[in-house]
Design goal:
The chain has 46 helices and 32 strands. With 1256 residues, the protein is of the alpha/beta class. Strands 6-11-10-7-9-8 form a six-stranded parallel beta sheet, sandwiched between helices. Strands 18, 19, 20, 21, 22 and 23 form a six-stranded antiparallel beta sheet that branches. Strands 2-3-1-4-5 form a five-stranded parallel beta sheet. The radius of gyration is 43 Å and the shape is elongated.
Length: 1256
């Protein structure tokens, strides 16, 4: 157990007071010892103990509002035993819930409490006893030094003001306000959104009316003009920034625009358009204004604050006298630029207080935000303007005037209010008397049964976090507020009440239908005397159920991503993984052990020339024939074929010498005569005797002239030519036209050779085709140097010739490329054994695909790699989506989506591969033939030591995971891909779909669901009959439906269906014979899976149903008429949102002709109508329906992809894909221009060898 340092926690009622105390305390202690914890620090997002411990690491004095510490204790981020002292102003619920409800014991440390307040009451004197009961201690005034304290206090003079007689006539109302009320009465409603907008406008006009009564029509007009101007400006500035429609704000905008130019309502301030009360206020300010004047004006409403400021700044008698500021508190709860009437800028308020202290401002207009706690010693005048006072506010506001000869003006409505002021003064004297009574004790707690039971209903978690009735409602709203927001849906919990004949109340709360049906409706545990308590009880029961459903974590916060997948999965651009696997280390180890050897025929096919036939001897068998294309430039391509293994017994020392002879013909100085333990043995024969003769015949060099005179002039039998004196590249004779001696009397002197003679190429990498892979100018020069630098004649006596024929030198030239590919094969073979060794896996045949999947940096096979990654991406997403859906039946769609996105992200896949131990198989080192060195057993084994690491980009690692899954799918279908993905991503489990067969998932389905008999037509439309009718109902249930059909909304099924549609499309694209680029595949997939296209399908997919109607002719005789009606998919949508219904109806009516145009574009015009489809961007509900139907059928058919493909065929998705492919329809989004022909050639053209089954 870590002993954390003790803290002093200072509790303040407002954020502004917190900031004031921080400044005061840090002036006397090191700043790091003291800090505030408020909404400005976003503490409501600090969801872990670790975060709080870091923030409190060096803090000795923490300052916050009550709610911050209360929440930290509730969620157990801070424990009570860590607090040594709590300083607070008022006895808050924090003490009731945590300090006194826990049993006190001598071995448990509890904090001391210091209360600082000028008024130990909540509102009136009767609440004093309630506070004392909460604190279990009487409130007393300190008697020691009391007389001295009084010498430093200044009681302001109380001045009650009543409007003068004859001045009570009200001015004429505001013209713009009358205009707004007229618009509200004459406008018609279009749906629920228009009703909501009218309610907002009505609240706004009511607030303006109050300002008009208190301050006069000028202030009301100014308030209305400023509010409307800000609202319009914000709407215009953000019109293009959001895709989410807001019908309420749009309707309000239309209404306000009907007012015309609001500046036409401007008028000057004069006595006829201000109220008598405000005139009396202005007169008082003018009368009291003098040098050193500092005043606070308290008003009742936030809106009145600014209106009064504008009045003072514009009135001709006050605009040059006063410098005004405003203060309405630091809370951001009510701040919204799209809310009419909220025009405050709270960011400048702390500057207001400092300017007031410095004398820059001499007047602050405020609400009760400055009523208590704020230190404003410069204030000498307080004016209470038209505010109802209780005992607490009377004491606190009067206390703001602390200078000598200060005054407290109280503006009253009539003489009756004057009596209330006298009564407040009397009650204050009673309060003082009680506080000075040292013999007074705390009365026993008089809580009734319901109150005691309310305190006892609570539950705790393993962390010690506690949930009570008092905080359940706020936490329930927070949970619902974090559910995914959707248009036309309110995520707030809905409370209703049932009252019995005795007046006892039971509450019912309904949660959003995004949740499982078992988590949608809850009742209070018992009936209560108060509606508030019943509501709290119902909220507590709901939150307890959510906690047991594991949608709430152990700190009683909504389940977060870090609670599920761990806190260490932070996004990284690069990962540290194991060093790339060296395939020759294991081979060297086998060489050192002297085990069985295997021979592999190595045949290098050369077009129009004889093949080069060799043998490669290794202690490890290659189980399949391997074909390796080799590109020599100028359109010349060789093919190296390495056969499968055959056991062999031979003399290894002779083989090593022959290998040394062949390799040293090209790779000189890369080995010594003493070091010949080659890992890769390449020999022309397997018989030791034949190899001995080969060594004897072909070792060393001889004079070219002597060689030509002794041997037939067959170019292939000649070795490489090397200049006697010059250091230059060896020469290779391709064709000999003839040779002659210029001096026949001297043997071999001046022998001239004519023919095609070329320097040996500088290229050492023959694995890429320069026509497909972009090469550097130097490489391009090397690839064609045989042609450009050819010689036609040379002097034979200037050259020596290798006895080794040049065909073996050519084999040595190509050997590094061949050996590299064999090494890649060995890595892939080792990976194959590790992943597909279990009995459930089928035999992996396509080793060429496995090799490509391991090499994301291989330029030659970049196209194949990206195509496999494209397929694997869809497979991995589908597997994770399906698993999350089946394993977590109580998770809502938002949680499922966030977890899925995290797992399948580049970061998630890279981390999974690192944890699963497959990182060493990733081939990131590009083959460099010029730096290639032969591998020796001794040197390879000596390199083994501590495992080295490398930095690899997360995207590269993730692409390898996807490509491997795609390779497994191409090899043997989805089951093979499942095994591969599960091996690399430990979070994927092989037993995912078992829950569909063993009854586990069926138990999570609702037992009964209303409306099951109404889906017959839906089944006919889809061409599928549901076994579980509730799935069909759920697939059509909009989130606005709460507690009606016994199912959840379609959001979970839509989550599953999106992954199914993508997989069905990718499988179909894979089955097409045409070979296309990954970019084209991605474009085709996006064209038929995007939400706009799916919404179009939802509106157009229908069937004609025949039905009978009754018609009565002119004679009154009824008859049966057969007719056909159109039944579309969207007709089955179940919704409780009038706004959505209106939107759908108007959209279908307006877009009937547009739908035909889009259909014609898709099938006839050869273009993909991205622009026309954009009209469906804001109606995701339609695409959700299509996706949810796929999810419902997949689950009901027990995970049958064949049924999903049949639905895609019926909807027209697959036929449209076939049309796009066969007619070469351009489906690229306009933001992504189509590639040029040259780019298509580079991207789409594979090497000639891609047709081979096992090409590497």
């Amino acid at each position: 157990m870590i002993n954390l340092p003790q803290l002093i926690w200072f509790l303040c009622p407002t954020v502004a007071l917190c900031n004031q105390h921080v400044r005061t305390i840090t002036a006397h202690v090191p700043p790091m010892w003291c800090r505030s914890f408020t909404s400005n620090d976003n503490v409501d997002h600090w969801g872990t103990v670790e975060t709080w411990n870091i923030a409190l690491a060096s803090v000795k004095v923490a300052i916050s509002t009550y709610q911050v510490l209360y929440d930290a204790l509730v969620h157990r981020f801070v424990t009570m035993d860590r607090l040594s002292l709590i300083i607070f102003d008022e006895g808050n619920k924090i003490m009731r819930e945590y300090y006194h409800t826990e049993p006190q014991s001598h071995d448990k440390q509890t904090p001391y409490i210091l209360g600082l307040t000028a008024s130990p009451i909540l509102s009136n004197i009767s609440t004093l006893e309630e506070i004392e009961r909460r604190l279990h201690s009487p409130c007393k005034t300190p008697r020691q030094f009391y007389a001295q304290l009084l010498r430093f206090t200044n009681q302001p003079l109380i001045v009650p003001l009543v409007p003068l007689r004859g001045s009570m006539t009200s001015p004429s109302p505001s013209l713009i306000l009358e205009r707004i009320r007229g618009l509200l009465q004459s406008s018609y409603e279009r749906g629920s959104y228009s009703r909501n907008a009218k309610r907002q406008l009505t609240r706004f006009s009511n607030q303006a009316e109050i300002i008009g009564r208190e301050l006069g029509p000028w202030a009301a007009t100014k308030y209305i003009q400023t509010s409307i101007t800000q609202f319009k400006e914000h709407m215009r500035m953000n019109a293009e920034k959001t895709h989410t429609p807001s019908p309420e704000r749009e309707y309000a905008m239309e209404m306000l625009c009907k007012l015309g130019n609001i500046e036409d309502y401007d008028e000057l301030v004069h006595s006829d358009n201000i109220s008598p009360m405000s005139q009396r206020l202005l007169d008082t300010l003018i009368e009291e204004h003098r040098k050193g004047f500092r005043a606070l004006i308290f008003v009742s409403l936030r809106a009145t604050v600014l209106a009064l400021k504008w009045l003072i700044e514009n009135h001709p008698e006050t605009r040059r006298r006063f410098r005004c500021g405003t203060f309405v508190g630091m809370s951001r709860i009510h701040q919204s630029k799209t809310r009419l009437g909220d025009v405050h800028d709270i960011r400048s308020q702390m500057e207001t207080l400092q300017k007031f202290r410095d004398g820059v401002l001499d007047l602050i207009i405020t609400t009760d935000a400055l009523e208590e706690g704020m230190d404003i010693p410069a204030c000498n005048t307080v004016l209470n303007f038209n505010c109802i006072l209780n005992l607490k506010s009377f004491i606190q506001r009067r206390g703001r005037a602390r200078r000598e000869q200060s005054k407290f003006f109280i503006f009253l409505q009539d003489e009756e209010d004057l009596k209330n002021v006298s009564l407040l003064q009397f009650r204050e004297s009673e309060l003082v008397r009680k506080l000075q009574d040292e013999g007074r004790t705390v009365l026993p707690d008089s809580l009734n049964h319901d109150e005691r039971l309310r305190d006892s209903l609570a539950f705790s978690s393993s962390t010690g976090a506690q949930m009570t009735m008092g905080n359940a409602i706020s936490h329930l709203y927070r949970f619902c507020g974090e559910l995914p927001a959707q248009p036309f849906v309110s995520n707030s919990p809905a409370f209703s009440y049932e009252t019995d004949e005795c007046g006892q109340v039971q509450a019912i709360v309904r949660l959003p239908s995004n949740l499982d049906p078992s988590l949608q409706t809850f009742k209070s545990l018992r009936k209560w005397a108060k509606k508030k308590w019943a509501k709290e009880d119902a909220a507590l029961q709901a939150y307890k159920a959510l906690f047991h459903a594991r949608l709430i974590n152990d700190h009683f916060l909504p389940l977060r991503l870090s609670d599920i997948i761990g806190k260490d999965l932070s996004p990284k651009s690069h990962y540290i993984i194991s060093e790339q696997l060296d395939p020759w280390h294991d081979v060297s180890l086998l060489w050192s052990r002297g085990g069985e050897l295997f021979s592999h025929e190595l045949r290098i096919a050369r077009p129009q020339r004889e093949d080069i036939e060799l043998f490669m001897i290794l202690p490890v068998p290659l189980r399949i024939e391997t074909r390796i294309p080799l590109f020599l430039g100028s359109g010349t391509e060789y093919k190296a074929v390495v056969s499968s293994a055959r056991p062999v017994s031979t003399d290894i020392s002779i083989c090593q010498q022959v290998t040394h002879l062949i390799l040293q013909s090209i790779h000189q100085c890369h080995g010594t005569q003493l070091n010949m333990d080659y890992v890769n043995i390449i020999v022309p024969e397997r018989d030791p005797a034949a190899m001995s003769k080969f060594l004897e015949a072909h070792s060393g060099r001889t004079s070219l002239a002597a060689c030509l005179q002794q041997r037939p002039t067959v170019p292939g039998s000649l070795g490489l030519l090397r200049h006697v004196t010059k250091t230059s590249r060896p020469l290779r004779i391709e064709v000999i036209d003839g040779h002659e001696c210029q001096d026949p009397h001297r043997d071999g002197v001046n022998l001239r050779i004519r023919g095609k003679i070329h320097p040996l190429t500088r290229r050492r990498n023959f694995l890429y085709d320069p026509k497909i892979v972009t090469v550097t100018p130097t490489e391009n020069q090397h690839s064609t140097s045989l042609v450009r630098q050819g010689l036609s004649e040379l002097a034979a006596d200037d050259y020596l010739v290798d006895r080794l024929p040049s065909i073996y030198a050519e084999a040595a030239l190509l050997a590094p490329s061949i050996i590299h590919r064999i090494g890649v094969y060995l890595i892939a073979e080792k990976l194959r054994k590790q992943i597909f060794s279990n009995p459930q896996a089928a035999r992996f045949e396509r080793m060429d695909l496995l090799c490509i999947a391991l090499s994301p940096t291989d330029d030659m096979h970049r196209h194949e790699f990206r195509s496999m990654a494209f397929i694997g991406d869809a497979i991995v997403k589908f597997l994770i989506t399906r698993q999350l859906f089946l394993h977590h039946t109580l998770w809502h769609e938002g949680l499922l989506t966030s977890v899925k996105d995290s797992i399948v992200s580049d970061t998630g896949l890279a981390a999974a591969l690192c944890h699963s131990g497959f990182g060493s198989y990733l081939i990131t080192t590009r083959f460099n033939g010029k730096r290639w060195r032969p591998s020796f057993v001794s040197t390879t084994l000596s390199k083994s030591g501590p495992t080295r690491r490398r930095y690899v980009g997360a995207a590269t690692v993730a692409d390898m995971v996807k490509a491997l899954a795609g390779a497994a799918f191409l090899d043997n279908g989805l089951d093979q891909a499942f095994i591969c993905a599960a091996a690399m991503i430990p979070k994927i489990k092989s037993w995912t779909t078992i829950s569909l067969y063993d009854g586990t998932y069926s138990k999570s389905r609702p037992s009964k669901s209303l409306g099951a008999s109404t889906i017959i037509d839906l089944e006919a439309l889809l061409g599928y009959t549901f076994s579980d009718k509730s799935l069909a109902i759920e697939s059509m249930t909009h989130p606005s439906c709460v507690g009606l059909y016994g199912t959840a909304s379609y959001r979970r099924l839509s989550f599953l269906g999106a992954g199914i549609i993508e997989l069905v499309v990718v499988r179909y694209l894979h089955r097409q014979k045409s070979f296309t680029s990954s970019k084209r595949l991605q474009s085709l997939k996006s064209a038929v899976t995007n939400n706009m296209f799916l919404a179009f399908l939802c509106l157009t997919f229908h069937w004609e149903k025949q039905h009978d109607i009754i018609e009565v002719d002119s004679m009154g005789v009824p008859s049966v008429i057969q007719t056909r009606g159109r039944v579309a998919l969207y007709h089955f949508l179940r919704s409780q949102s009038d706004s959505l219904s209106d939107k759908v109806s108007s959209l279908v009516e307006d877009l009937t002709s547009q739908l035909h145009v889009i259909k014609r574009d898709l099938w006839e015009n050869g273009i993909y109508p991205w622009a026309r489809l954009s009209v469906f961007r804001g109606l995701k509900v339609f695409s959700d329906i299509v996706q949810s139907v796929f999810g419902a059928i997949y689950i009901d058919s027990l995970a049958s992809l064949q049924q999903s493909e049949a639905l895609a065929e019926r909807l027209g998705i697959l036929p449209l894909l076939e049309h796009f492919i066969s007619h070469d329809v351009v489906t690229d989004h306009p933001k992504q221009p189509a590639p040029t022909q040259a780019q298509n050639l580079w991207q789409d053209s594979p090497g000639e060898g891609t047709a081979h089954v096992n090409q590497i």
